[in-house]
């Protein structure tokens, strides 16, 4: 579904009326966490989570952590629920065989960087990864899932919108109360400018400022071009603003709900509309893996990656984790 606009506005009638349901949602989550003893799988597990429903930038951060661990010689595997896919898992993702309808878009992106497992039962998925030779696991989402022990838990927040109106689903975007979530986290990753004072909420935990940086070659091809931009992500307007910032002229914007399953006729219509406008159709890497295979080549893609403000701060979190997971006590 599309993110309700009132989630990111000051509390009004809709959020007030829905607040009792949000209170029940939060209570159920707290009871589930309190009543579960997390289990370990014998290798370090890094969780990349957030406190809001919808996009905050978890998958790019997960990909950046995978790259950082691989650079240290770790045989890292990715683990995700497979949101939007039909497979329950545990299942090893095969990008040559599986589609987004099978395993979800995030799994396909992660599988392009490391062996990836889809599992609605995160503990079972982690056990399969460990048995398959993983030296560490990067889990995309799952912060509110208490079954699997997390050796390092990062909360990712979008600095532009923060935690919205501060209310729980469905009255607002929060999956749990901010204070409760941050109390279980080891660090807070803030993507983009911190416009809502998020760093002050970290309670002494490390804060890792970062930004999403467009692929320079793709950005150069789009600069100065008329584009029809479409995206089915948590905040499509963020993608549209990124295009404008790199110099593209966005002549039409077409937002879809997060994880939108694109139909061939729908994408063909977008391509035809672009042609009529004399524009180039462009979307995100996350959307691209959901496009019909036969139409992907006709749509430009703008990949992004995470650029850390302080690589040393990230290393300070990862090094103890690797020392703990190494049999000889030496980080790679």
Write up this protein.
This protein is α/β, with parallel strands linked by helices and 332 residues long. The chain has 2 domains: 200 residues, Rossmann fold; 87 residues, no CATH class. Helices cover 34% and strands 20% of the residues. The strands form 2 sheets. The chain has a 9-stranded mixed β-sheet with strand order 3-4-2-5-1-6-7-8-13, sandwiched between helices. Strands 10-9-11-12 form a 4-stranded parallel β-sheet. Helix 10 links the parallel strand 11 and strand 12. The N and C termini lie far apart (43 Å). The model has no long low-confidence stretch (mean pLDDT 94). One of its GO terms (molecular function) is lipid-A 4'-kinase activity. Its EC number is 2.7.1.130. Belongs to the LpxK family. This is Tetraacyldisaccharide 4'-kinase.
- Low-confidence sequence ranges: none
Name the helicity range.
Answer: 25-40%
Shape: globular
Strand content range: 15-25%
Distance between the termini: 43 Å
What order do the SSEs take from the amino end to the carboxyl end, as H and E?
A: HEHEEHHEHEEHEEHEHEHEHEEH
Strand order of the largest sheet: 3-4-2-5-1-6-7-8-13
Strand tally, please?
13
- Do you know the CATH architecture of the largest domain? 3-Layer(aba) Sandwich
Rg calc: 20 Å
CATH class of the largest domain: Alpha Beta
Number of helices: 11
Rounded average pLDDT: 94
Query: Quaternary status of these chains?
Result: single chain
Protein name: Tetraacyldisaccharide 4'-kinase
Binding site for ATP: 52-59
GO molecular function: ATP binding; lipid-A 4'-kinase activity
Keywords: ATP-binding, Kinase, Lipid A biosynthesis, Lipid biosynthesis, Lipid metabolism, Nucleotide-binding, Transferase
């Amino acid at each position: 579904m599309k993110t309700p606009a009132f989630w990111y506005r000051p509390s009004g009638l809709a959020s007030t009326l829905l607040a009792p349901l949000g209170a029940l949602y939060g209570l159920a989550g707290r009871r589930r966490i309190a009543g579960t003893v997390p289990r370990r799988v014998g290798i370090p597990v890094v969780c990349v989570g957030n406190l809001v429903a919808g996009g905050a930038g978890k998958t790019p951060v997960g990909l950046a952590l995978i790259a950082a661990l691989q650079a240290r010689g770790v045989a890292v595997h990715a683990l995700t629920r497979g949101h939007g896919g039909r497979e329950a898992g545990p299942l090893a993702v095969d990008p040559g065989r599986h589609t987004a309808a099978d395993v979800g878009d995030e799994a396909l992106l992660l599988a392009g960087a490391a062996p990836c497992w889809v599992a609605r039962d995160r503990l079972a998925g982690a056990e399969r990864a460990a048995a398959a030779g993983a030296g560490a696991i990067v889990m995309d989402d799952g912060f509110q899932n208490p079954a699997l022990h997390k050796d390092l838990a990062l909360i990712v927040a979008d600095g532009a919108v923060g935690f919205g109106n501060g209310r729980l689903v469905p009255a607002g975007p929060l999956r749990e109360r901010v204070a409760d979530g941050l109390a279980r986290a080891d660090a807070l990753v803030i993507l983009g400018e911190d416009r809502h004072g998020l760093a002050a909420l970290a309670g002494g935990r490390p804060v890792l400022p970062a930004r999403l940086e467009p692929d320079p070659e793709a950005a150069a091809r789009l600069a100065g071009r008329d584009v029809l931009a479409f995206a089915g992500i948590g905040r499509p307007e963020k993608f549209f603003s990124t295009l404008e910032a790199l110099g593209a002229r966005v002549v039409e914007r077409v937002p879809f709900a997060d994880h939108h399953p694109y139909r061939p006729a729908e994408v063909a219509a977008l391509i035809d509309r672009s042609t009529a406008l004399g524009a180039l159709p462009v979307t995100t890497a996350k959307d691209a893996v959901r496009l019909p295979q036969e139409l992907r080549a006709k749509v430009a893609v703008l990949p992004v990656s995470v650029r850390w403000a302080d690589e040393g701060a990230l290393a300070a979190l990862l090094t103890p984790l690797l020392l703990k997971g190494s049999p000889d006590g030496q980080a790679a």
